[in-house]
Write a structure and sequence with these properties.
The complex is a heterodimer. By secondary structure, chain A is an alpha/beta fold. Chain A contains 8 helices and 30 strands. In chain A, a hairpin with a 4-residue loop joins strand 6 and strand 7. In chain A, helix 1 packs parallel to helix 2, helix 1 packs parallel to helix 8 and helix 4 packs across helix 5. The N and C termini of chain A lie far apart (57 Å). Chain B is globular. Chain B folds into 3 domains: 209 residues, FAD/NAD(P)-binding domain (3-Layer(bba) Sandwich), CATH 3.50.50; 147 residues, 2-Layer Sandwich (D-Amino Acid Oxidase, Chain A, domain 2), CATH 3.30.9; 84 residues, Arc Repressor Mutant, subunit A, CATH 1.10.10. The chains are: A alpha/beta, B alpha+beta.
Chain lengths: 413, 469
């Protein structure tokens, strides 16, 4: 019997596995579907990773290698696809080398990451030619395969991968004509707007969208229009840009097919499993971490969260089950989700960390945590945006006998 | 000299080729695109209609009912994904109730088996998510859903095995009595059968000014993720009424949900773009049947072109002594395809073509679908060919072995979409976002085509038009 099986060898899986071993799990196994570990980091050859974690600026592969170097006494199966996970913690997988296998674990960590939203998810009308790619697919073609998907691009969405690709394609000689964002604010990190668009004079059209893709066989252009507060295109504001490529950076979706298959409840707000303070899902002994739980903006935060998940999985595998009363964390005004959704105070130590995203751009507001009307904690913020994950730390001593805690954005009094 | 030349590699031309190659005939098929099933065949509702809709006594009525019957057998023989889901035509109010009765009577006259009118409660028992406003429905148990492109490919591949000479990327530009002129050459034939879909008027015009008017009509669709599967159990139609034919919500044979189409007359029959208005129409119309439909599970929009004409019926007849035109084959063309093929054989025989069945011919086909195998079968397969142990398309669980196998079929793919049509890689919720680069690599390895020359679909649809670094 394996102590901890970690599904996924990207940043979340790597950190969870290392942490599980460091916390006493003897037999830890990572199952990765690609031929090498590192996940999406392998194609992220730009720098900016690790500023929080390692206090240095690393590229994606360098960041991954920091963890890969630590895998002593951890087993790894690469080129192996997990097909099924059961609530009884049986994992069924398939590979060239071992065929169809069935493994049992005392604890499982789900670390499958996320995938990109596609054209279909946002129903962009028009023709269906070649030349429309998710930013990540274009990144793979460029950075792993060594091919440019096109020479004249328009980017829809200002998510970080799209911004990074705007710069990357420009550096490789392509012309990036515009980055078009539906919302009145960017979905990416401010530093990426500055370093990837502004520094290369790529115009950012906020509150605009692509209303039509043109081109019978290969993309020939796009029609762009301004959108109103209802996010619907405003007639008469359309203009065309000729291009051969459309890159989509319109959001990420946690990849929870295995989670659903195991019958683990999924939070519609995060598209990830509901989790407790130790990243345990509502299915005992099955933990989840990283982008499969909620989409993070920095890999550093993925690592931190995954270390907690790995440690908790090890603890569970060694026979110590988390228990005690449960507090539900609810979203108040301005908060789109929180992770964890449930806190067991007896299991927390002195503090409980909450991660969340806000619904809008806010300036000079406070984050409040309330037990009913009663204020439990309050944190002032100068600036918050939906593109940047927020976190707060609540001293458990302040929680009292609360059954529910509500996190909201409120005006500073 | 060919005995028969077929023009068009959609499901109709392919079915005709399948049927004709059972005989001692020299048969060729010319298709202008680089693959089978790239036109209307790949973009429609994917329904094998039961046959209650066409006017009794019409050619369409006869061929639809017969085609449905044949589909059941052929899909088993040729390993084509097909599921007899049944269909319901839902009525919303008294006027529609009357239409349902009329359709029932039509169906009985057309010889459709098993038809039944469901009352509101029976309908809700069958389709629990149907709108409260639905008042009755016509239930047709023999209707089903199919993979249209795999149907066409199965016909065409089997025909090739049986001796069909297939010419892809070869557009027919003229017909002179017994000669078919293409971009690449001239070919003699005793008989020419045109199955040119939306190009039927153009091709018929090579021989004689058509006596019908093509009214190309576009339909737009949503294809929903597998997470939406189960919202309906059968093909859910709306009653046709003065506001139009309504839209359908149906399971697909691949485990998705399809929603659509609208119907828009267009002047450009090559314009299969989707439009915001068209999709809005479909969206709103669909909620009428199933208010809880989750259209945010959409993974793909597409549009297809119907070869509608001023005639309600299929237009199948000899236009000259050598030239048999299959024109105006719109819905239920897919359902009727094998019956149309039988009918083509009858007509050619009646015209004087000597038709004797071959002593032996192939009438079977099988496809390995890894995810449908048992654990033991999976292991045995991987032992034999380890490529079946590597999952390339993770959404649909399609292995490298299955993709490699498409290159060993009688009509190997030449594009990423060609691979998709043969083994479903890239059909899922990420729409090839993850697997397309890998599929491209596998195409390169199997065909030797340089990566920057690999196509997404049709000629000119280069994936990596920016070239190598």
């Amino acid at each position: 019997m394996i102590d901890v099986i970690v599904i996924g060898g990207g940043p979340a899986g790597l950190a969870a596995a290392v942490s599980a071993r460091d916390n006493g799990a003897e037999k830890v196994l990572i199952i990765e579907r690609d031929t090498c570990l590192g996940g999406i980091l392998n194609q992220c050859i730009h720098n900016g990773f690790g500023l929080h974690r390692f206090k240095e600026e690393l590229s994606g592969p360098e960041y991954a290698s920091r963890y890969v170097e630590q895998l002593e006494n951890i087993e790894v199966l690469t080129d192996t696809m997990v097909l099924e996970v059961t609530p009884q913690r049986v994992v069924r997988a398939v590979s060239r080398e071992n065929g169809y296998i069935e493994l049992e674990a005392k604890a499982i960590v789900l670390a499958m990451g996320c995938r990109e939203r596609t054209r279909g998810a946002i129903s962009i009308p028009g023709d269906r030619p070649a030349g429309v790619y998710t930013a990540g697919a274009a990144q793979r073609y460029l950075n792993i395969e060594g091919y440019m998907v096109g020479k004249n691009a328009v980017i829809l969405g200002s998510g970080d991968i799209g911004l990074i690709m705007a710069r990357r394609m420009t550096l490789e000689g392509a012309k990036v004509h515009a980055c078009v964002e539906l919302m009145p604010y960017s979905g990416g990190l401010t530093r990426n707007i500055v370093q990837c668009l502004n520094d290369f004079d790529i115009p950012l059209y906020l509150a605009h969208t692509i209303t039509r893709i043109h081109g019978k066989n290969r993309v020939e252009g796009v029609t762009i229009a301004k959108v109103g507060p209802d996010r619907k295109p405003i007639a008469g504001t359309e203009f065309d840009i000729e291009c051969d490529t459309v890159l989509l950076s319109v959001g990420l979706i946690p990849e929870n097919e295995l989670t659903r298959g195991a019958g683990i409840p999924i939070d519609r707000r995060t598209n990830g499993a509901f989790v407790y303070e130790n990243m345990e899902t509502l299915s005992e002994g099955i933990f989840a971490c990283g982008n499969v739980v909620h989409v993070h903006d920095l890999v550093d935060y993925v690592s931190a969260e995954s270390e907690r998940a790995g440690a908790a999985a090890a603890k569970y595998a060694l026979g110590s089950k988390a228990a005690g009363r449960v507090i539900t964390v609810e979203n108040g005004e301005g908060v789109s989700y929180t992770v964890p959704q449930y806190i067991r105070p007896e299991n927390c130590g002195k503090t409980a960390s909450l991660f969340f995203r806000v619904r809008n751009v806010y300036r000079n507001v406070r984050i409040t945590v309330r037990n009913g009307e009663k204020l439990v904690a309050s944190f002032n913020r100068e600036h918050m945006a939906p593109g940047e994950m927020e976190s707060i730390v609540i001293p458990v001593s302040l929680v009292g006998d609360a059954e529910k805690l509500t996190v909201s954005i409120e005006e500073v009094k | 000299m060919f005995d028969v030349i077929i023009i068009g590699g959609g499901v109709i031309g392919s079915a005709a080729a399948y049927e004709l190659t059972k005989y001692n005939l020299r048969v060729a098929l010319f298709e202008k695109e680089n693959d089978i099933a790239t036109g209307t065949t790949k973009a429609n509702s994917a329904i094998i209609h039961a046959g209650y809709d066409p006017v009794p006594g019409s050619l369409t009525a006869r061929l639809n009912v017969r085609g449905n019957e044949l589909a059941h057998e052929i899909c088993k023989k040729l390993d084509v994904p097909f599921k007899e889901t049944g269909s319901v035509v839902c009525a919303f109010g008294e006027e529609d109730d009357a239409t349902v009765k009329k359709l029932y009577e039509r169906g009985v006259q057309n010889g459709v088996p098993g038809l039944r009118i469901l009352n509101k409660e029976e309908l809700r028992a069958l389709e629990p998510n149907i709108s409260e406003d639905a008042t009755s429905a016509l239930y047709a148990p023999t209707a089903g859903v199919i993979s249209p492109w795999e149907y066409a490919l199965a016909f065409a591949e089997t025909a090739v095995v049986n001796g069909l000479e297939l010419h892809l990327c070869e557009k027919v530009t003229d017909i002179k009595e017994n000669t078919v002129v293409t971009e690449k050459g001239e070919y003699g034939a005793k008989y020419i059968v045109a199955a040119a879909g939306v190009n039927c008027a153009e091709v018929e015009g090579y021989v004689k000014e058509p006596d019908f008017v093509l009214k190309a009509n576009k339909g737009e669709y949503f294809l929903l993720d597998k997470s939406a599967f189960g919202i309906v159990n059968t093909v859910v139609f709306q009653c046709p009424n003065k506001n139009g034919k309504g839209v359908l919500i149906s399971p697909t044979v691949h485990g998705n949900i399809i929603v659509g189409p609208n119907a828009e007359g267009v002047s450009d029959k090559t314009d299969i773009s989707t439009t915001a208005q068209g999709l809005d129409f479909v969206r709103n119309a669909a909620y009428k049947s199933v208010p809880s439909l989750n259209l945010s599970a959409n993974i793909r929009n597409f549009a297809g072109m119907r070869a509608n004409t001023n005639e309600e019926d299929f237009i199948i007849r000899f236009v000259s002594p050598q030239f048999l035109s299959l024109a105006g084959i719109k819905s239920p063309g897919l359902a009727s395809a094998p019956a149309i093929a039988e009918y083509v054989c009858e007509l050619l025989k009646d015209a004087g073509l000597e038709m004797s069945k071959k002593e032996t011919y192939t009438d079977s086909r099988s496809v390995i679908r890894f995810k449908e195998l048992t654990a033991e079968e999976k292991n045995a397969l991987i032992k034999k060919d380890p490529a079946y142990g590597r999952v390339v398309c993770r959404c649909e669980i399609i292995t490298e072995g299955e993709i490699n196998a498409t290159f060993k079929t009688p009509i190997p793919p030449v594009s990423i979409d060609g691979v998709k049509r043969r083994c479903n890689a890239g059909m899922g919720r990420c729409q090839g976002g993850f697997c397309a680069p890998r599929v491209l690599d596998i195409i390169h390895k199997n065909t030797g085509i340089p990566k920057e020359k690999i196509l997404k679909d049709k000629e000119g649809s280069y994936v990596l038009s920016g070239g190598a670094l």
